[in-house]
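Hi Prof. W.,

I finally got the Cytochrome P450 prediction working! I wasn't sure whether to trim anything, so I left the full sequence exactly as given:
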Amino acid sequence: MSTGTDFFSCLRGLQNLVDKDGHPLPPGPPLRYPFLPKYNERILHRWTKKYGPLYSVWMGNQLFVVLNDPTVVRDLLVVHGANFSSRWNFFMKNQTILKGGAITATPYNDTWRKHRRIANTILAPKAVESYSATLDYEAHMLIRSLFHDTKQGLIPVNPAHYAGRYVLNNMLSVTFGTRTGSVADPLVRRALPLGNEFMKLTGPWSNAIDFIKPLQWIPTRIRSRGRKLRKDFLEVYGAMINLVKHRMESGENVPDCLVKSLLEYQEDEKLSWTDMCLLTTAFATGGSHSTSGTIQWFLAFMPSHPEIQAKAHEELDRVIGRDQWPTPEDEMRLPYVRAIIKEVTHHPIFSFPLFCSRPSLSSPFWMATPHCSDNDFVYRGMFIPANTVMMLNCYSLHHNEERYPDPFKFNPDRFMGDDYSSTESSKLPNAMDRDHWAFGAGRRICPGMPVAEKEIFLAISRLLWAFTIQSVPGEPISLDEYEGNSGRTPLPFRIRLSPRHDNVRSVLDARAETLVFLECRLGAVGRIAWHDGNGANLTLPNKVADAVSCQYQDAVLLMAPDQIVAHVQPTKS
Ligand code: HEM
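And this is what came out:
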Protein backbone atom coordinates (compact mmCIF):
# COMPACT_ATOMS: atom_id res chain seq x y z
CA MET A 1 0.00 0.00 0.00
CA SER A 2 1.12 3.55 -0.49
CA THR A 3 0.44 6.75 1.39
CA GLY A 4 0.43 10.33 0.27
CA THR A 5 2.06 12.46 3.00
CA ASP A 6 2.75 16.17 3.23
CA PHE A 7 3.22 18.79 5.93
CA PHE A 8 -0.45 18.76 6.96
CA SER A 9 -0.82 14.99 7.02
CA CYS A 10 -0.51 15.00 10.80
CA LEU A 11 -3.91 16.72 10.82
CA ARG A 12 -5.45 15.23 7.72
CA GLY A 13 -6.66 11.66 7.57
CA LEU A 14 -4.83 9.48 5.05
CA GLN A 15 -7.88 9.19 2.84
CA ASN A 16 -5.59 8.83 -0.19
CA LEU A 17 -4.18 5.55 1.12
CA VAL A 18 -4.54 2.84 -1.56
CA ASP A 19 -3.56 -0.81 -1.81
CA LYS A 20 -1.15 -2.23 -4.42
CA ASP A 21 -3.96 -2.43 -6.98
CA GLY A 22 -5.04 1.14 -6.40
CA HIS A 23 -8.19 0.39 -4.35
CA PRO A 24 -8.95 3.43 -2.17
CA LEU A 25 -10.13 3.45 1.42
CA PRO A 26 -13.86 3.81 2.00
CA PRO A 27 -14.83 7.51 1.79
CA GLY A 28 -14.88 9.55 4.98
CA PRO A 29 -14.20 12.83 6.75
CA PRO A 30 -10.83 14.36 5.81
CA LEU A 31 -9.44 15.11 9.29
CA ARG A 32 -7.85 13.01 12.01
CA TYR A 33 -9.58 13.17 15.38
CA PRO A 34 -8.00 12.73 18.84
CA PHE A 35 -11.45 11.72 20.16
CA LEU A 36 -15.08 12.45 19.30
CA PRO A 37 -16.96 14.72 21.71
CA LYS A 38 -19.97 13.67 23.78
CA TYR A 39 -22.99 12.54 21.72
CA ASN A 40 -20.55 11.01 19.24
CA GLU A 41 -23.40 8.89 17.86
CA ARG A 42 -24.86 12.06 16.29
CA ILE A 43 -21.61 12.87 14.51
CA LEU A 44 -21.34 9.31 13.26
CA HIS A 45 -24.94 9.38 12.07
CA ARG A 46 -24.34 12.63 10.18
CA TRP A 47 -21.39 10.96 8.47
CA THR A 48 -23.59 7.96 7.64
CA LYS A 49 -25.95 10.32 5.83
CA LYS A 50 -23.05 11.93 4.01
CA TYR A 51 -20.79 8.97 3.17
CA GLY A 52 -23.21 6.03 3.07
CA PRO A 53 -23.22 2.44 4.26
CA LEU A 54 -19.45 2.13 4.84
CA TYR A 55 -17.04 4.94 5.65
CA SER A 56 -13.62 5.43 7.17
CA VAL A 57 -12.48 7.75 9.98
CA TRP A 58 -8.96 8.39 11.28
CA MET A 59 -8.69 8.48 15.06
CA GLY A 60 -5.13 9.67 15.60
CA ASN A 61 -3.08 7.20 13.58
CA GLN A 62 -5.70 4.51 13.74
CA LEU A 63 -8.12 3.78 10.92
CA PHE A 64 -11.73 3.02 11.80
CA VAL A 65 -14.24 1.67 9.28
CA VAL A 66 -17.85 2.27 10.27
CA LEU A 67 -20.57 -0.18 9.15
CA ASN A 68 -24.03 1.32 8.82
CA ASP A 69 -25.99 -1.06 6.66
CA PRO A 70 -27.32 -4.57 7.49
CA THR A 71 -26.00 -6.17 4.30
CA VAL A 72 -22.54 -4.66 4.76
CA VAL A 73 -22.44 -5.93 8.34
CA ARG A 74 -23.46 -9.41 7.25
CA ASP A 75 -20.96 -9.48 4.35
CA LEU A 76 -18.02 -8.38 6.47
CA LEU A 77 -18.60 -9.55 10.05
CA VAL A 78 -20.53 -12.74 9.32
CA VAL A 79 -19.58 -14.05 5.86
CA HIS A 80 -15.96 -12.90 6.17
CA GLY A 81 -15.90 -13.36 9.93
CA ALA A 82 -12.58 -15.24 9.70
CA ASN A 83 -10.94 -11.91 8.90
CA PHE A 84 -13.06 -9.51 10.97
CA SER A 85 -13.33 -11.06 14.41
CA SER A 86 -10.34 -9.74 16.29
CA ARG A 87 -10.12 -6.83 18.75
CA TRP A 88 -8.01 -3.72 18.44
CA ASN A 89 -5.67 -2.99 21.32
CA PHE A 90 -7.41 0.10 22.79
CA PHE A 91 -5.10 1.59 25.41
CA MET A 92 -7.70 2.03 28.12
CA LYS A 93 -9.94 -1.00 27.74
CA ASN A 94 -7.67 -3.63 26.22
CA GLN A 95 -4.19 -2.71 27.47
CA THR A 96 -4.85 -1.11 30.86
CA ILE A 97 -8.01 -2.60 32.33
CA LEU A 98 -8.42 -6.02 30.75
CA LYS A 99 -4.92 -6.55 29.32
CA GLY A 100 -6.25 -8.69 26.48
CA GLY A 101 -8.40 -10.85 28.79
CA ALA A 102 -12.08 -11.27 29.70
CA ILE A 103 -12.96 -12.74 26.24
CA THR A 104 -14.21 -9.37 25.09
CA ALA A 105 -10.68 -7.89 24.83
CA THR A 106 -8.97 -11.06 23.60
CA PRO A 107 -7.70 -11.05 20.00
CA TYR A 108 -9.10 -13.67 17.64
CA ASN A 109 -6.76 -16.54 18.56
CA ASP A 110 -6.67 -19.88 20.33
CA THR A 111 -7.00 -18.29 23.76
CA TRP A 112 -10.21 -16.58 22.65
CA ARG A 113 -11.50 -19.84 21.17
CA LYS A 114 -10.84 -21.64 24.44
CA HIS A 115 -12.50 -18.95 26.58
CA ARG A 116 -15.40 -18.56 24.21
CA ARG A 117 -15.98 -22.34 24.29
CA ILE A 118 -16.25 -22.18 28.06
CA ALA A 119 -18.62 -19.18 27.89
CA ASN A 120 -20.78 -20.92 25.29
CA THR A 121 -21.08 -23.99 27.48
CA ILE A 122 -22.29 -21.97 30.45
CA LEU A 123 -24.61 -19.74 28.41
CA ALA A 124 -26.05 -22.12 25.78
CA PRO A 125 -29.87 -22.17 25.66
CA LYS A 126 -29.87 -25.67 27.20
CA ALA A 127 -27.68 -24.55 30.09
CA VAL A 128 -29.88 -21.51 30.55
CA GLU A 129 -32.84 -23.87 31.11
CA SER A 130 -31.08 -25.03 34.24
CA TYR A 131 -30.98 -21.44 35.55
CA SER A 132 -34.70 -20.98 34.88
CA ALA A 133 -35.69 -21.49 38.51
CA THR A 134 -33.09 -18.96 39.62
CA LEU A 135 -34.18 -16.35 37.09
CA ASP A 136 -37.81 -16.93 38.06
CA TYR A 137 -36.99 -16.54 41.75
CA GLU A 138 -34.92 -13.38 41.24
CA ALA A 139 -37.64 -11.75 39.13
CA HIS A 140 -40.10 -12.55 41.91
CA MET A 141 -37.83 -10.95 44.52
CA LEU A 142 -37.29 -7.91 42.28
CA ILE A 143 -41.01 -7.14 42.09
CA ARG A 144 -41.63 -8.12 45.69
CA SER A 145 -38.95 -5.82 47.05
CA LEU A 146 -40.20 -2.96 44.87
CA PHE A 147 -43.75 -3.56 46.12
CA HIS A 148 -42.81 -3.63 49.80
CA ASP A 149 -40.04 -1.02 49.78
CA THR A 150 -42.36 1.49 48.10
CA LYS A 151 -45.11 0.74 50.65
CA GLN A 152 -47.30 -0.61 47.87
CA GLY A 153 -46.72 2.29 45.58
CA LEU A 154 -46.96 5.15 48.09
CA ILE A 155 -43.25 6.03 48.08
CA PRO A 156 -41.46 6.94 44.83
CA VAL A 157 -38.42 4.85 44.01
CA ASN A 158 -35.21 5.10 42.02
CA PRO A 159 -35.24 1.70 40.31
CA ALA A 160 -31.54 1.60 39.36
CA HIS A 161 -30.31 -0.39 42.36
CA TYR A 162 -33.24 -2.79 42.15
CA ALA A 163 -32.62 -3.52 38.47
CA GLY A 164 -28.90 -3.68 39.25
CA ARG A 165 -29.31 -6.12 42.10
CA TYR A 166 -31.70 -8.28 40.05
CA VAL A 167 -29.28 -8.80 37.18
CA LEU A 168 -26.27 -8.95 39.51
CA ASN A 169 -27.93 -11.79 41.43
CA ASN A 170 -28.66 -13.59 38.18
CA MET A 171 -25.06 -13.16 37.09
CA LEU A 172 -23.75 -14.17 40.53
CA SER A 173 -25.81 -17.36 40.31
CA VAL A 174 -24.60 -18.11 36.79
CA THR A 175 -21.02 -17.20 37.66
CA PHE A 176 -20.52 -18.07 41.36
CA GLY A 177 -23.62 -20.02 42.40
CA THR A 178 -24.53 -17.31 44.90
CA ARG A 179 -26.57 -14.09 45.32
CA THR A 180 -26.98 -10.92 47.38
CA GLY A 181 -29.53 -10.26 50.10
CA SER A 182 -30.75 -6.71 49.57
CA VAL A 183 -30.11 -3.51 47.64
CA ALA A 184 -28.08 -2.35 50.64
CA ASP A 185 -25.69 -5.26 50.27
CA PRO A 186 -22.02 -4.18 50.18
CA LEU A 187 -21.47 -6.23 47.05
CA VAL A 188 -24.28 -4.40 45.25
CA ARG A 189 -22.69 -1.17 46.40
CA ARG A 190 -19.22 -2.23 45.26
CA ALA A 191 -19.77 -4.37 42.15
CA LEU A 192 -22.31 -2.13 40.42
CA PRO A 193 -20.13 1.01 40.59
CA LEU A 194 -17.23 -1.01 39.15
CA GLY A 195 -19.42 -1.84 36.17
CA ASN A 196 -20.42 1.80 35.79
CA GLU A 197 -16.79 2.92 35.99
CA PHE A 198 -15.91 0.42 33.24
CA MET A 199 -18.64 1.84 30.98
CA LYS A 200 -17.43 5.40 31.64
CA LEU A 201 -13.79 4.62 30.89
CA THR A 202 -14.17 2.54 27.78
CA GLY A 203 -16.07 4.35 25.02
CA PRO A 204 -14.36 3.47 21.73
CA TRP A 205 -14.43 7.07 20.45
CA SER A 206 -14.15 9.09 23.60
CA ASN A 207 -10.63 8.65 25.03
CA ALA A 208 -7.87 10.81 23.61
CA ILE A 209 -5.48 8.56 25.56
CA ASP A 210 -6.40 5.70 23.19
CA PHE A 211 -5.20 7.62 20.15
CA ILE A 212 -2.44 9.97 21.33
CA LYS A 213 0.57 7.89 22.34
CA PRO A 214 2.38 10.46 24.55
CA LEU A 215 -0.70 10.66 26.79
CA GLN A 216 -0.19 6.98 27.54
CA TRP A 217 3.25 7.60 29.04
CA ILE A 218 2.35 10.27 31.55
CA PRO A 219 0.54 9.68 34.84
CA THR A 220 -2.88 11.13 34.02
CA ARG A 221 -5.94 10.72 36.20
CA ILE A 222 -7.71 8.61 33.59
CA ARG A 223 -4.74 6.22 33.41
CA SER A 224 -4.77 5.84 37.21
CA ARG A 225 -8.51 5.20 37.15
CA GLY A 226 -8.01 2.46 34.55
CA ARG A 227 -5.25 0.81 36.62
CA LYS A 228 -7.27 1.03 39.80
CA LEU A 229 -10.29 -0.50 38.10
CA ARG A 230 -8.22 -3.50 37.00
CA LYS A 231 -6.96 -3.95 40.54
CA ASP A 232 -10.50 -3.73 41.92
CA PHE A 233 -11.82 -6.25 39.41
CA LEU A 234 -9.09 -8.74 40.28
CA GLU A 235 -9.58 -8.20 44.01
CA VAL A 236 -13.38 -8.39 44.12
CA TYR A 237 -13.85 -11.25 41.70
CA GLY A 238 -10.67 -13.06 42.80
CA ALA A 239 -12.01 -13.18 46.35
CA MET A 240 -15.30 -14.57 45.10
CA ILE A 241 -13.52 -17.32 43.15
CA ASN A 242 -11.50 -18.21 46.23
CA LEU A 243 -14.65 -18.59 48.20
CA VAL A 244 -16.17 -21.01 45.68
CA LYS A 245 -12.88 -22.91 45.73
CA HIS A 246 -12.97 -23.26 49.51
CA ARG A 247 -16.60 -24.29 49.44
CA MET A 248 -15.80 -27.04 46.94
CA GLU A 249 -12.77 -28.16 48.97
CA SER A 250 -14.85 -28.34 52.12
CA GLY A 251 -17.14 -30.82 50.38
CA GLU A 252 -20.07 -28.49 49.77
CA ASN A 253 -22.26 -29.30 46.80
CA VAL A 254 -21.77 -25.99 44.97
CA PRO A 255 -24.43 -25.43 42.26
CA ASP A 256 -23.25 -25.59 38.64
CA CYS A 257 -21.78 -22.22 37.71
CA LEU A 258 -18.99 -20.66 35.66
CA VAL A 259 -16.42 -20.65 38.47
CA LYS A 260 -17.07 -24.30 39.30
CA SER A 261 -16.40 -25.17 35.65
CA LEU A 262 -13.31 -22.95 35.55
CA LEU A 263 -11.89 -24.60 38.67
CA GLU A 264 -12.62 -28.04 37.28
CA TYR A 265 -11.04 -27.28 33.87
CA GLN A 266 -8.26 -25.07 35.22
CA GLU A 267 -5.44 -27.53 34.66
CA ASP A 268 -6.66 -29.11 31.41
CA GLU A 269 -7.39 -25.73 29.87
CA LYS A 270 -4.28 -24.12 31.38
CA LEU A 271 -6.26 -21.24 32.83
CA SER A 272 -4.24 -18.73 34.81
CA TRP A 273 -5.61 -17.04 37.92
CA THR A 274 -5.91 -13.75 36.03
CA ASP A 275 -7.77 -15.52 33.19
CA MET A 276 -10.29 -16.81 35.69
CA CYS A 277 -10.74 -13.46 37.44
CA LEU A 278 -11.27 -11.65 34.15
CA LEU A 279 -13.65 -14.24 32.74
CA THR A 280 -15.80 -13.87 35.82
CA THR A 281 -15.51 -10.08 35.53
CA ALA A 282 -16.76 -10.29 31.93
CA PHE A 283 -19.83 -12.21 33.04
CA ALA A 284 -20.60 -10.23 36.16
CA THR A 285 -19.97 -6.81 34.59
CA GLY A 286 -20.80 -7.26 30.89
CA GLY A 287 -23.79 -9.41 31.72
CA SER A 288 -25.15 -7.05 34.38
CA HIS A 289 -24.80 -3.54 33.05
CA SER A 290 -26.42 -4.07 29.65
CA THR A 291 -29.33 -6.09 31.00
CA SER A 292 -30.00 -3.74 33.89
CA GLY A 293 -29.69 -0.83 31.44
CA THR A 294 -32.49 -2.29 29.32
CA ILE A 295 -34.77 -2.60 32.35
CA GLN A 296 -33.92 0.94 33.51
CA TRP A 297 -34.63 2.42 30.07
CA PHE A 298 -37.93 0.54 29.98
CA LEU A 299 -38.90 2.08 33.32
CA ALA A 300 -37.76 5.52 32.25
CA PHE A 301 -39.78 5.30 29.09
CA MET A 302 -43.11 3.93 30.33
CA PRO A 303 -44.45 6.93 32.29
CA SER A 304 -44.65 9.01 29.12
CA HIS A 305 -46.40 6.17 27.25
CA PRO A 306 -49.58 5.29 29.20
CA GLU A 307 -51.23 4.06 26.00
CA ILE A 308 -48.51 1.44 25.53
CA GLN A 309 -48.84 0.34 29.16
CA ALA A 310 -52.62 0.08 28.72
CA LYS A 311 -52.19 -2.17 25.68
CA ALA A 312 -49.74 -4.39 27.54
CA HIS A 313 -52.07 -4.55 30.57
CA GLU A 314 -54.93 -5.62 28.32
CA GLU A 315 -52.79 -8.40 26.83
CA LEU A 316 -51.62 -9.57 30.26
CA ASP A 317 -55.16 -9.61 31.71
CA ARG A 318 -56.52 -11.47 28.68
CA VAL A 319 -53.77 -14.08 28.34
CA ILE A 320 -52.48 -14.56 31.88
CA GLY A 321 -55.27 -13.20 34.09
CA ARG A 322 -54.91 -11.65 37.52
CA ASP A 323 -54.66 -14.76 39.72
CA GLN A 324 -51.20 -15.63 38.50
CA TRP A 325 -48.42 -13.85 36.72
CA PRO A 326 -46.24 -14.54 33.64
CA THR A 327 -43.84 -17.45 33.86
CA PRO A 328 -40.90 -18.20 31.55
CA GLU A 329 -43.18 -20.49 29.51
CA ASP A 330 -45.58 -17.63 28.71
CA GLU A 331 -43.18 -15.63 26.58
CA MET A 332 -44.54 -16.60 23.17
CA ARG A 333 -48.13 -16.00 24.36
CA LEU A 334 -47.36 -12.32 25.02
CA PRO A 335 -46.42 -10.84 21.65
CA TYR A 336 -47.05 -7.23 22.65
CA VAL A 337 -44.84 -7.46 25.75
CA ARG A 338 -42.14 -9.05 23.58
CA ALA A 339 -42.55 -6.24 21.06
CA ILE A 340 -42.08 -3.62 23.81
CA ILE A 341 -38.84 -5.33 24.83
CA LYS A 342 -37.52 -5.37 21.27
CA GLU A 343 -38.47 -1.72 20.82
CA VAL A 344 -36.72 -0.68 24.07
CA THR A 345 -33.59 -2.51 22.98
CA HIS A 346 -33.78 -1.03 19.52
CA HIS A 347 -34.24 2.65 20.35
CA PRO A 348 -35.20 4.29 23.55
CA ILE A 349 -33.82 7.80 23.99
CA PHE A 350 -35.10 10.99 22.45
CA SER A 351 -32.80 13.93 22.66
CA PHE A 352 -32.78 17.51 21.52
CA PRO A 353 -29.38 18.56 20.27
CA LEU A 354 -28.39 22.15 20.91
CA PHE A 355 -30.02 24.68 18.57
CA CYS A 356 -32.31 22.06 17.09
CA SER A 357 -36.02 21.68 17.72
CA ARG A 358 -36.31 18.27 16.11
CA PRO A 359 -35.53 15.36 18.41
CA SER A 360 -32.66 13.15 17.46
CA LEU A 361 -32.33 9.68 18.86
CA SER A 362 -29.76 8.10 21.00
CA SER A 363 -29.70 4.50 22.09
CA PRO A 364 -28.11 2.60 24.97
CA PHE A 365 -26.84 0.09 22.44
CA TRP A 366 -25.63 2.65 19.98
CA MET A 367 -22.37 0.90 19.12
CA ALA A 368 -21.42 -2.76 19.54
CA THR A 369 -17.94 -3.72 20.77
CA PRO A 370 -15.59 -2.95 17.86
CA HIS A 371 -14.08 -5.79 15.87
CA CYS A 372 -10.69 -5.59 14.12
CA SER A 373 -9.41 -6.96 10.80
CA ASP A 374 -6.53 -9.45 10.66
CA ASN A 375 -5.59 -9.08 6.97
CA ASP A 376 -5.92 -6.60 4.12
CA PHE A 377 -9.30 -6.94 2.42
CA VAL A 378 -11.06 -5.41 -0.58
CA TYR A 379 -14.83 -4.91 -0.37
CA ARG A 380 -16.96 -3.38 -3.14
CA GLY A 381 -13.74 -1.96 -4.63
CA MET A 382 -12.66 -0.38 -1.32
CA PHE A 383 -9.53 -1.21 0.64
CA ILE A 384 -9.77 -2.24 4.29
CA PRO A 385 -6.20 -2.68 5.62
CA ALA A 386 -5.19 -5.22 8.27
CA ASN A 387 -5.58 -3.93 11.87
CA THR A 388 -8.52 -1.66 11.01
CA VAL A 389 -11.11 -1.11 13.74
CA MET A 390 -14.51 -2.25 12.45
CA MET A 391 -17.38 -0.39 14.13
CA LEU A 392 -20.90 -1.76 14.08
CA ASN A 393 -22.87 1.49 14.15
CA CYS A 394 -26.09 0.37 15.84
CA TYR A 395 -27.26 3.96 16.07
CA SER A 396 -27.46 4.32 12.29
CA LEU A 397 -28.57 0.73 11.77
CA HIS A 398 -31.45 1.23 14.20
CA HIS A 399 -32.61 4.40 12.51
CA ASN A 400 -32.64 3.04 9.00
CA GLU A 401 -35.97 4.31 7.66
CA GLU A 402 -36.36 1.44 5.25
CA ARG A 403 -36.06 -1.12 8.03
CA TYR A 404 -37.80 0.88 10.76
CA PRO A 405 -40.35 3.29 9.21
CA ASP A 406 -40.75 6.45 11.29
CA PRO A 407 -37.70 5.55 13.39
CA PHE A 408 -38.16 8.54 15.72
CA LYS A 409 -41.38 7.10 17.11
CA PHE A 410 -41.32 4.68 20.04
CA ASN A 411 -43.53 2.10 18.44
CA PRO A 412 -43.59 -1.51 19.70
CA ASP A 413 -46.12 -2.37 16.97
CA ARG A 414 -43.26 -2.45 14.48
CA PHE A 415 -42.19 -5.75 16.09
CA MET A 416 -45.63 -7.40 16.16
CA GLY A 417 -45.49 -10.63 14.18
CA ASP A 418 -41.78 -11.08 14.89
CA ASP A 419 -41.81 -14.46 16.62
CA TYR A 420 -38.06 -14.94 16.67
CA SER A 421 -35.85 -14.77 19.72
CA SER A 422 -32.90 -12.44 19.22
CA THR A 423 -30.63 -15.48 18.85
CA GLU A 424 -32.85 -16.86 16.06
CA SER A 425 -33.23 -13.45 14.49
CA SER A 426 -29.44 -13.00 14.27
CA LYS A 427 -29.30 -16.10 12.05
CA LEU A 428 -31.93 -15.04 9.49
CA PRO A 429 -30.56 -15.19 5.94
CA ASN A 430 -31.71 -11.67 5.06
CA ALA A 431 -29.88 -9.23 7.34
CA MET A 432 -32.67 -6.66 6.81
CA ASP A 433 -35.04 -8.99 8.70
CA ARG A 434 -32.96 -9.07 11.89
CA ASP A 435 -34.77 -7.49 14.86
CA HIS A 436 -31.90 -5.25 16.03
CA TRP A 437 -28.11 -5.19 16.35
CA ALA A 438 -27.73 -4.59 20.08
CA PHE A 439 -26.05 -7.97 20.58
CA GLY A 440 -23.41 -7.41 17.91
CA ALA A 441 -22.77 -9.71 14.94
CA GLY A 442 -20.60 -12.51 13.62
CA ARG A 443 -18.27 -14.78 15.58
CA ARG A 444 -18.06 -12.39 18.53
CA ILE A 445 -21.83 -11.99 18.86
CA CYS A 446 -22.94 -11.79 22.48
CA PRO A 447 -22.96 -15.33 23.91
CA GLY A 448 -25.23 -14.10 26.74
CA MET A 449 -28.26 -13.49 24.48
CA PRO A 450 -30.37 -16.45 25.69
CA VAL A 451 -29.95 -15.60 29.36
CA ALA A 452 -30.33 -11.83 28.82
CA GLU A 453 -33.58 -12.30 26.90
CA LYS A 454 -35.04 -14.51 29.60
CA GLU A 455 -34.07 -12.12 32.38
CA ILE A 456 -35.49 -9.12 30.57
CA PHE A 457 -38.73 -10.88 29.70
CA LEU A 458 -39.34 -11.98 33.29
CA ALA A 459 -38.61 -8.55 34.74
CA ILE A 460 -40.55 -6.48 32.22
CA SER A 461 -43.58 -8.75 31.88
CA ARG A 462 -43.95 -8.92 35.68
CA LEU A 463 -43.42 -5.20 36.19
CA LEU A 464 -46.20 -4.60 33.69
CA TRP A 465 -48.41 -7.27 35.25
CA ALA A 466 -48.02 -5.84 38.75
CA PHE A 467 -47.81 -2.07 38.34
CA THR A 468 -48.87 1.04 36.54
CA ILE A 469 -45.62 2.93 36.07
CA GLN A 470 -45.94 6.69 36.59
CA SER A 471 -43.65 9.66 36.90
CA VAL A 472 -43.47 11.63 40.14
CA PRO A 473 -45.13 15.07 39.84
CA GLY A 474 -42.46 17.76 39.49
CA GLU A 475 -39.72 15.21 38.67
CA PRO A 476 -39.50 14.89 34.88
CA ILE A 477 -37.50 11.91 33.66
CA SER A 478 -34.70 12.91 31.35
CA LEU A 479 -34.75 10.90 28.14
CA ASP A 480 -32.21 13.04 26.35
CA GLU A 481 -29.23 12.48 28.65
CA TYR A 482 -27.44 9.37 29.77
CA GLU A 483 -24.52 8.05 31.78
CA GLY A 484 -21.66 5.96 30.42
CA ASN A 485 -19.63 5.85 27.24
CA SER A 486 -19.63 2.26 26.06
CA GLY A 487 -22.87 1.18 27.77
CA ARG A 488 -25.48 3.76 28.65
CA THR A 489 -27.99 4.05 31.43
CA PRO A 490 -30.49 6.83 32.19
CA LEU A 491 -29.61 9.63 34.60
CA PRO A 492 -30.97 8.83 38.09
CA PHE A 493 -34.77 9.15 38.17
CA ARG A 494 -37.67 8.22 40.42
CA ILE A 495 -40.99 6.65 39.52
CA ARG A 496 -44.17 5.65 41.25
CA LEU A 497 -45.19 2.01 40.96
CA SER A 498 -48.91 1.68 41.70
CA PRO A 499 -50.17 -1.89 42.15
CA ARG A 500 -52.76 -2.60 39.45
CA HIS A 501 -55.10 -4.80 41.47
CA ASP A 502 -55.65 -6.55 44.80
CA ASN A 503 -54.09 -9.83 43.71
CA VAL A 504 -50.66 -8.29 43.34
CA ARG A 505 -49.93 -8.67 47.04
CA SER A 506 -51.13 -12.28 47.30
CA VAL A 507 -49.14 -13.38 44.22
CA LEU A 508 -46.03 -11.59 45.49
CA ASP A 509 -46.29 -12.82 49.05
CA ALA A 510 -46.77 -16.42 47.95
CA ARG A 511 -42.98 -16.58 48.10
CA ALA A 512 -40.65 -14.87 50.52
CA GLU A 513 -36.95 -14.21 50.30
CA THR A 514 -35.28 -17.11 52.11
CA LEU A 515 -32.31 -15.48 53.69
CA VAL A 516 -30.50 -16.13 56.89
CA PHE A 517 -28.26 -13.22 57.71
CA LEU A 518 -25.02 -14.00 59.38
CA GLU A 519 -22.58 -11.58 60.81
CA CYS A 520 -18.89 -12.16 60.72
CA ARG A 521 -16.99 -10.26 63.35
CA LEU A 522 -13.42 -9.65 62.35
CA GLY A 523 -12.55 -8.79 65.90
CA ALA A 524 -9.63 -10.27 67.84
CA VAL A 525 -6.86 -11.44 65.57
CA GLY A 526 -7.59 -14.83 64.06
CA ARG A 527 -10.94 -15.22 65.79
CA ILE A 528 -14.21 -15.13 63.96
CA ALA A 529 -17.52 -15.38 65.70
CA TRP A 530 -20.60 -16.03 63.63
CA HIS A 531 -24.10 -15.32 64.64
CA ASP A 532 -27.38 -14.84 62.87
CA GLY A 533 -29.57 -11.75 62.85
CA ASN A 534 -30.97 -12.68 66.30
CA GLY A 535 -27.58 -13.07 67.89
CA ALA A 536 -27.60 -16.90 68.08
CA ASN A 537 -24.16 -18.42 67.55
CA LEU A 538 -23.69 -20.45 64.39
CA THR A 539 -21.09 -22.92 63.31
CA LEU A 540 -19.65 -22.70 59.83
CA PRO A 541 -17.41 -25.26 58.16
CA ASN A 542 -13.85 -24.32 59.14
CA LYS A 543 -12.56 -24.00 55.62
CA VAL A 544 -15.32 -21.61 54.67
CA ALA A 545 -14.70 -19.53 57.78
CA ASP A 546 -10.97 -19.47 57.02
CA ALA A 547 -11.62 -18.43 53.45
CA VAL A 548 -13.77 -15.61 54.68
CA SER A 549 -11.25 -14.40 57.16
CA CYS A 550 -8.30 -14.45 54.76
CA GLN A 551 -9.86 -13.39 51.54
CA TYR A 552 -12.79 -11.19 51.86
CA GLN A 553 -12.84 -7.60 52.96
CA ASP A 554 -16.29 -6.45 52.05
CA ALA A 555 -18.97 -9.06 51.96
CA VAL A 556 -19.35 -12.74 51.49
CA LEU A 557 -22.28 -14.63 50.13
CA LEU A 558 -22.88 -18.28 50.63
CA MET A 559 -25.32 -20.63 49.03
CA ALA A 560 -25.94 -24.03 50.51
CA PRO A 561 -27.19 -27.01 48.50
CA ASP A 562 -30.80 -26.26 49.41
CA GLN A 563 -30.52 -22.87 47.71
CA ILE A 564 -29.85 -19.47 49.14
CA VAL A 565 -29.40 -19.59 52.86
CA ALA A 566 -26.71 -17.30 53.99
CA HIS A 567 -25.42 -13.84 53.59
CA VAL A 568 -22.27 -13.18 55.55
CA GLN A 569 -21.39 -9.63 56.24
CA PRO A 570 -18.25 -8.66 58.08
CA THR A 571 -18.82 -5.97 60.63
CA LYS A 572 -16.28 -3.58 62.09
CA SER A 573 -14.45 -4.90 65.10
C1 HEM B 1 -29.20 -6.73 27.05
C2 HEM B 1 -28.16 -7.45 27.38
C3 HEM B 1 -26.87 -7.55 26.59
C4 HEM B 1 -26.45 -6.83 25.52
C5 HEM B 1 -27.17 -5.73 24.78
C6 HEM B 1 -25.14 -7.34 25.15
C7 HEM B 1 -24.41 -6.88 24.08
C8 HEM B 1 -23.17 -7.39 23.71
C9 HEM B 1 -22.42 -6.93 22.56
C10 HEM B 1 -22.83 -5.84 21.61
C11 HEM B 1 -21.28 -7.67 22.52
C12 HEM B 1 -20.17 -7.54 21.48
C13 HEM B 1 -20.53 -8.37 20.26
C14 HEM B 1 -19.56 -8.20 19.11
O1 HEM B 1 -18.36 -8.08 19.34
O2 HEM B 1 -20.03 -8.21 17.95
C15 HEM B 1 -21.30 -8.58 23.64
C16 HEM B 1 -20.30 -9.46 23.93
C17 HEM B 1 -20.29 -10.26 25.04
N1 HEM B 1 -21.33 -10.43 25.93
FE1 HEM B 1 -23.09 -9.46 25.93
N2 HEM B 1 -24.79 -8.34 26.02
C18 HEM B 1 -25.83 -8.50 26.92
C19 HEM B 1 -25.89 -9.43 27.93
C20 HEM B 1 -24.90 -10.33 28.24
C21 HEM B 1 -24.96 -11.32 29.28
C22 HEM B 1 -26.18 -11.54 30.18
C23 HEM B 1 -23.76 -11.97 29.29
C24 HEM B 1 -23.26 -13.08 30.17
C25 HEM B 1 -23.95 -13.79 30.95
C26 HEM B 1 -22.94 -11.40 28.24
C27 HEM B 1 -21.66 -11.80 27.94
C28 HEM B 1 -20.93 -11.33 26.88
C29 HEM B 1 -19.56 -11.77 26.59
C30 HEM B 1 -18.74 -12.77 27.40
C31 HEM B 1 -19.17 -11.09 25.42
C32 HEM B 1 -17.82 -11.16 24.71
C33 HEM B 1 -17.92 -12.04 23.48
C34 HEM B 1 -16.62 -12.09 22.65
O3 HEM B 1 -15.88 -11.11 22.57
O4 HEM B 1 -16.40 -13.15 22.06
N3 HEM B 1 -23.66 -10.41 27.62
N4 HEM B 1 -22.48 -8.40 24.35
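The radius of gyration is 24 Å. Does that look reasonable to you?

Thanks,
D.
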